[in-house]
Design goal:
Length: 724
C-alpha cells in the first residue's frame, strides 16, 4: 500500500486536541467552537471547521485567553492547508507554523507537539519524520497519548516510505504503548485503524512476509471494530472492517475479504461516507476480478467511480499539492476498470458489445484526466467549463484521435474515427514506453546529433504503426493525440517511420482529454489580437532580441495591440483583456511550467504572471459570447521527464478558458522560435485551413532550412485543444 492510501482517514492531530481542553459543545465559547471544529474536521467538513476555528480565534482574543490562541492557530494551519480556503499554498501555512513554533513559550508542549505534527505533514519531506518523532516525544512528555500516537503513526508511515521499515516498526511499538494508555473512546478506535494500516505499510516496505506484523495489524482492526460497534461509530466501523478486508486480500483470503468488504460498504453507505465507500467498491472490484467474476467486478468498479464523482472536489483537497500521490491514490480505480473493459473488448472484437466496452474504458480514463487537471490547477476548472465544452466525437472525415493507454503489462491504443473506436494492443509495458519517451526527449533537446532517431522509430512503431493501414485507408490528414503520463512531455511531430517524420504525414494536435472547447474554425481576418513580449533582459532572464521581429511580422499581417518591454506589465495585460474582446492572445516571453501550478509562470516586465492571474485576465471577458480562440506562449518550457509539468502545459488552454493554445515543451533558439511562430501566423492569414495545418506547414518549412533541420528546433511546439 502506497503512502497515499491512508491520507483520507489519517488523524492529523488537531492542535485543539493537543491543547487538552475539556470537551464542550457550547458554540458561544472559544473552546466549545474549537471542539465543534475538531469534530467537523474529522468528518471531512473542512470549510465548516475552518470557519468555526476563525470564530473561535476571535472569541479567544476577546476573552483574553492567550494560551488558547497558539492552539487555534495551529489548528487553522492544519484545516486551512487541507482545504486551501484562503488561497494560501501549503508552504505558506508551513511558514506560518514556523513562526508559531518560534513564538510558543515554555509550558505549551502540547501545542508545540501538534504544530510539529502538522508541519511534518505539510512539508512531506525526509525531514518530516524527525518533526513527527519530536512531536510524539513532546506529546508523551505532556501526557497526551492520543497526539503521541497520531504523530508516531505519521512518523512510521514516513519512515516506511523512505525505506526504513525497522525504524518504522520501532515507532509503532511505542505507539502501541500510547494506545494502551488511552481509555476506550475518545478516538481510540480510529487510531487503532491508523495503526493497523501503518503496520501493513511496514510489512510492504520490508519486502518480506512477516506474520507478526500481519497479526498485529489484524488485532488492531478487530479491536477497532469492537470499540466502534459498541460506540455506534459507523464510520470507524466501516474503516476497520474494510481495512481488515484489505489485509485478508493481501493474505490470499479473498472470500473472507469479500464478506468484510460488503459489511464495510454497508456501514459506509449508512454513514454516507463516500470517501470510504469508493474504497470498498474498488476493493470488491479487485476481489471479484481475482476470482474471475468479470460482470460483478465491472459493477463494483462502476460503483467506485460513481462514488468518486460525488466527492471529487473533497479528494482534490485531500490529495491536492501532492502531485503523483493523487494519481497513485485515485488513478488505479480508473485504470483497473479500463484494463478490464479493454480485455473484454479484445475478447469480443468486432461485436457491438466490444464497442460499448471501448467507450466505457475511454470514459473512465476521461474522468481521471479531468480530475488530474483539476488537481494540478487546484480548482474545478474542467468542471466549470462544461457548459462551453463538447466532446470531439463524432469526428469530421480526415480526422483521427489517437488515445494511448499505458498499462503495466501492455500498451493499449484506441483510435477514434468517424465510424467509432478501433483497438490495438502492443506487447510493451508502460514502464518501457516511459523510459524510451524520456530518452527521446533528452536526445531531442541536445540538437547536435541524430541519436534520437532510434527512440523516434521505436515510439512510432508502438504508437502509430499499428493503425497506419487504417489511417491510410481512411485518408486521414489530421491526427489528434490524447497523451498519458510520460507521453505528455514528448513531441509527436518528431516520431519517425524510418523514412520521414510524423509531421510530414499529418497535421498534429494534442488535447488533455476528448472534451474541449467547441472545435470551430478560427477566422483570423476578423480576429482581435493582443501581442505582448519582451526583448530586453529582465529579472535575470536573458534578452530575446528576435521577439521584436516576431511581433512586428504578426502585427504587419494581422494588426492588433502591442505591449512590448516596459508596456508589458501585469496590470496593463489585465486592463487590455478587460477592455477589448481579444480572440488571439500572443505572449512572447520566458515562461516555465513546473510540477505545481503555483510555481508556473510567464515573465512580464515587472514580475511573473502566474497561471491564476492569466486565468483571471483571460476570463475578464467571460461574459462575452465567445472565449479566446488562441493563446500562444512562444518561449515557454517544461522540465524534461516531468509529465506533471507537461500536464500543466497541456491544460493551460482549459485553465485560461481558451479554445486552443500554441506552446513549446522546451526553450528553443530565439531566432528559430520567432521564425516558426511568425510563419505560423502568416499561413493562418493567407487562408491555410486550420491551426494544426498552419503549424505543420511552418514546421515543414523549418525542416527544409539547413540551420534548423534538427527536430529539436521545430518539434517542441504543440497545438493544444481545438486544431481547426
Amino acid at each position: 500500500m502506497g503512502r497515499a492510501s491512508l491520507q483520507s482517514c489519517m488523524l492529523t492531530g488537531l492542535a485543539i486536541l493537543a491543547a487538552g481542553m475539556v470537551r464542550a459543545e457550547d458554540p458561544t465559547t472559544a473552546d466549545g467552537l474549537a471542539r465543534q471544529a475538531e469534530a467537523h474536521r474529522a468528518e471531512g467538513k473542512l470549510e465548516q471547521s475552518f470557519n468555526e476555528l476563525l470564530r473561535a480565534r476571535a472569541l479567544a482574543e476577546k476573552s483574553g485567553d492567550p494560551g488558547l490562541l497558539p492552539a487555534i492557530d495551529a489548528a487553522l494551519a492544519d484545516v486551512g492547508s487541507a482545504g486551501e480556503f484562503d488561497g494560501r499554498a501549503r508552504e505558506g501555512w508551513a511558514r506560518a507554523l514556523d513562526r508559531l513554533l518560534a513564538e510558543i513559550g515554555p509550558g505549551q508542549e502540547r501545542t508545540r507537539a501538534a504544530a510539529l505534527n502538522t508541519l511534518g505533514r505539510l512539508r512531506d519531506t525526509p525531514d518530516s519524520a524527525d518533526a513527527f518523532r519530536q512531536s510524539a516525544m513532546l506529546a508523551r512528555r505532556a501526557g497526551d497519548p492520543a497526539l503521541a500516537a497520531t504523530a508516531g503513526i505519521n512518523a512510521a508511515r514516513r519512515l516506511a516510505a523512505m525505506g526504513a521499515p525497522a525504524q518504522a516498526e520501532a515507532a509503532l511499538t511505542e505507539v502501541e504503548r500510547d494506545l494502551a494508555a488511552l481509555e476506550d473512546g475518545d478516538g481510540k478506535a480510529f487510531l487503532l485503524v491508523a495503526q493497523g494500516i501503518a503496520l501493513m505499510d511496514v510489512q510492504a516496505a520490508a519486502r518480506q512476509s512477516r506474520g507478526t506484523l500481519a497479526r498485529r495489524s489484524h488485532d488492531c482492526f478487530v479491536k477497532a471494530a469492537e470499540l466502534a460497534r459498541a460506540a455506534g461509530d459507523r464510520r470507524t466501523l466501516s474503516a476497520a472492517l474494510g481495512y481488515l478486508g484489505t489485509l485478508y486480500e493481501r493474505l490470499g483470503r479473498p472470500d473472507d475479504a469479500l464478506v468484510l468488504t460488503r459489511e464495510a460498504s454497508f456501514w459506509a453507505q449508512e454513514r454516507m461516507a463516500a470517501d470510504l465507500l469508493f474504497r470498498w467498491h474498488w476493493q470488491a472490484g479487485r476481489l471479484h476480478r481475482s476470482q474471475g467474476r468479470t460482470a460483478d467486478a465491472l459493477m463494483a468498479y462502476d460503483a467506485a467511480t460513481a462514488a468518486i464523482r460525488r466527492i471529487r472536489s473533497d479528494l482534490l483537497r485531500a490529495y491536492g499539492g501532492y502531485g503523483s500521490l493523487f494519481r497513485e491514490a485515485i488513478g488505479p480505480v480508473y485504470l483497473e476498470s479500463a484494463d478490464l473493459r479493454l480485455r473484454q473488448a479484445s475478447a469480443l472484437r468486432g461485436t457491438p458489445q466490444a464497442q460499448r466496452h471501448l467507450v466505457a474504458a475511454r470514459d473512465a480514463l476521461e474522468q481521471l484526466k479531468a480530475a488530474e487537471l483539476e488537481d494540478y490547477f487546484q480548482d474545478d476548472c474542467v468542471a466549470a467549463l462544461k457548459a462551453k465544452v463538447q466532446t470531439i466525437d463524432p469526428l469530421a472525415p480526415g480526422t483521427a484521435v489517437l488515445y494511448p493507454i499505458l498499462l503495466p503489462d501492455r500498451l493499449e491504443l484506441l483510435l477514434s474515427l468517424s465510424d467509432g473506436l478501433h483497438q490495438a494492443t502492443v506487447p510493451v509495458g508502460g514502464a518501457e514506453v516511459g523510459a524510451v519517451a524520456a530518452s527521446f526527449r533528452r536526445q531531442l533537446e541536445q540538437r547536435t546529433s541524430s541519436r534520437f532517431l532510434g527512440d523516434a522509430r521505436r515510439l512510432y512503431d508502438w504508437l502509430v504503426r499499428p493503425f497506419t493501414p487504417l489511417l491510410e485507408a481512411r485518408e486521414a490528414d489530421t491526427l489528434v493525440l490524447v497523451p498519458d503520463g510520460p507521453l505528455r512531455s514528448i513531441p509527436m511531430a518528431a516520431l519517425h517511420d524510418g523514412k520521414r517524420f510524423l509531421v510530414e504525414r499529418y497535421a498534429l494536435a494534442v488535447t488533455p482529454g476528448l472534451s474541449l472547447m467547441e472545435p470551430k474554425p478560427l477566422s483570423v481576418q476578423q480576429a482581435e489580437l493582443l501581442l505582448a513580449g519582451l526583448t530586453e533582459s529582465v529579472q535575470g532572464f536573458p534578452a530575446l532580441p528576435f521577439v521584436e521581429s516576431e511581433i512586428k511580422t504578426i502585427h504587419g499581417a494581422l494588426g492588433g495591440t502591442v505591449l512590448e518591454n516596459r508596456s508589458f506589465v501585469i496590470e496593463r495585460v489585465g486592463r487590455e483583456l478587460n477592455a477589448a474582446p481579444y480572440s488571439i492572445v500572443h505572449i512572447a516571453s520566458h515562461g516555465k511550467f513546473e510540477p505545481e501550478a503555483s510555481d508556473s509562470y510567464i515573465v512580464a516586465y515587472d514580475g511573473r504572471l502566474s497561471m491564476d492571474q492569466l486565468e483571471r485576465f483571460v476570463k475578464l471577458s467571460q461574459y462575452r459570447e465567445e472565449p479566446v480562440e488562441l493563446l500562444t506562449l512562444s518561449a515557454c518550457q517544461t522540465a524534461a521527464g516531468d509529465d506533471r509539468a507537461a500536464l500543466g502545459l497541456a491544460g493551460v488552454a482549459i485553465k485560461a478558458g481558451a479554445r486552443s493554445a500554441l506552446a513549446s515543451l522546451w526553450f528553443i533558439n530565439d531566432q528559430a522560435s520567432s521564425q516558426l511562430i511568425a510563419d505560423f501566423y502568416r499561413r493562418l492569414a493567407t487562408g491555410v485551413p486550420g491551426k494544426a495545418e498552419a503549424l505543420r506547414q511552418a514546421q515543414m518549412s523549418m525542416l527544409t532550412d539547413v540551420r534548423y533541420q534538427h527536430p529539436g528546433y521545430w518539434a517542441a511546439f504543440l497545438l493544444i485543444g481545438n486544431w481547426r
